[in-house]
Amino acid sequence: MRELTEIIRLTVKEKKDVVLSAVFGAVAGFTSVGVFALSGYMISQAALEVPLYVLTIMIALMKLFGILKAVTRYAERYYSHRATFTILANLRASIFDRLETIAPTIFQRYKSGDLLARIVGDVESLQNFFLRVFYPPLVMMVVFIATILFTLFYSVTTGVLLIVGVLLTGFLIPSLVSLKQRKIESRVRDSRSELSSGTAEFLYGFRELKIHQQLFHQEETLGGASSMYVKEQERESRHSLFSHTINLLVSLLITWLVLVLGVYAVGEGNLDGVLLAMLVMISLTVFDEAIPMATLPYHLEDSRKASKRLGEIQGGELKGRRSEEAPDHAPSFTLEKVGFTFEGGGRSSISDVDLYIPEGSKTAVIGASGSGKSTLFNLLLTFYSPDEGQILMDSRPIDAFKRESLWQKAAVILQENHFFHGSIRDNLLIAGNFGDEELQRVLSKVKLPFRLEDTVTEKGGNLSGGEKQRMAIARAILKGGPLWILDEPTSSIDPMLEAELMGVIRKESENSTLLLISHRLTGLEEMDQIVVMEEGKIVEVGNYQELMDRKGYFYHMKEIEKNVIFQ
Fold first, then answer.
1. pLDDT, tens digit, for every residue of 251-271?
2. Which of 190, 251, 351, 524 could link 339 by a cystine bridge, Cβ 3.0 to 4.6 Å?
3. Angle, in degrees to the nearest 10, between helices 15-47 and 52-101
């Protein structure tokens, strides 16, 4: 049961509501048994023509028990559900804390549909842990023990039968069902994850599937996943219903035995006949408290699997390791023998990288696709941590600085920039709080003829590649900061406009440290240093003229580019 450690810890944390739920649940159970026991006793007494005041007292007690039952049952529901909602809220916060540390690389570890199924479906499954698994056995035991002690005072036989009943319905049958549940190894959560992942892939790739005439095949696959999910749900429902039926059958059998043996005891003169109806009514009612035990194995296994899947979401490093604020001035960077391999990757993305980026300098990192440029970008932004070597910022290990502080002071342009459904204004304002005049001025700088109220659809679907990149540049200009890190910021922009925008970027980042990652070789003359990468290693470092004079790797790349352009 190690998988349930986290949910148990969060449950125990809400001890006040847990205790109140159990107390009110037990009182509600007592009053429920009391109402039926008193009704059975009153009917028997009424047949003997007892004094009216005796019946009046019993009727008043029944009303009192009825009101108390309603009040305590409401209180039990209130505190149990409040505890459940608080536990789920704390669980979601715990999961979010873990996800936050790996957010930049989260979709390299998990499919979006699978992740959604975990943080929505599996969390919702755990709402049954407290309501159906944790406290019902406590309430059942308290009510049964008190009821058995009460019935033993009047009839030892009935008390023994109730003990047998509670052992069967409360422990033996649920245990056997639980063992069978484990053997069945239900795949509801896994099939739900597959369905969610397949649905997400279908929606994201609808256009490509349509173009390549694969839509029908994908629909069949998705339909199969849906059918599997429904079948798994039906199988679990049948199993849960079977367990409930067996428990109900045993409880009715015990009640029948109480009646048969009670009649025999009355005939033998060992039991007052007035008490027989009371004992039968007690037996009928007390087993209501054992009903939740019928579904406990199902909910226990469901909670165990859900908790296990959530436990597989592993967070990154502890936030406590990062305690320092990033500098307010243009920083320097030093990379010493840095190496990094992606999780599950067969080869190193970068290896044995030594590099110094002076403060306030303008550095370009170039190379072919797959040479390790973007990996270097992600390491400097602490999206990843190096497997080998270390990265220093202002002669301090970069992992000593708070990520949020570093990101706050960095103007960043990614290869793929996200745009939210809303207006142009909304998408620019994520860079900070600016007036319309400033926003419009920046749009003019990046040559975008948009109005601030123009609509942007989800993921910027109505923007071209070049417009998206210019919107990203506008965000970076608005945010500014002592550090600029740009990954292919103009790859979708025509050369003439690209040269103009790079001039704007250089001017805006004049007093900042700038790192430009690109596979293009144009416009590098203004850079303080150029870093050339190939197959994860640095092969050349120098300014434009030095590299051209050296006639090495960079020089040959320029010659190839010229030949391609002029042919």
1. 889 989 989 998 988 888 888
2. 351
3. 160
Query: Whole-angstrom Cα distance, residue 163 to residue 165?
Result: 5
Ranges in the chain, pLDDT < 50: 317-320, 566-567
Distance CA 149, CA 460 (A): 70
pLDDT digits (tens, 9 = 90+) for 300-339: 777 887 888 787 776 554 444 567 888 899 999 999 999 9
Q: Residue ranges per domain, the chain?
A: 2-311, 328-566
Which is nearest to 469 in space by CA: 439, 501, 515?
501
Determine the 3-state secondary structure of 541 from DSSP. Answer: strand
Q: Which fold has domain 2-311?
A: ABC transporter transmembrane region fold (1.20.1560)
Dist. CA 372–CA 31, nearest whole Å: 71
Instruction: Decide: 125 and 87 in contact? Cβ < 8 Å.
Output: no
What is the phi/psi pair of residue 494, to 5°?
-65, 155
Which residues, other chains included, contact 259 with Cβ-Cβ below 8 Å and sequence gap of 6+?
276, 280, 283
How much is the pTM? 0.66
Closest CA to 94 of 307, 321, 403, 302: 307
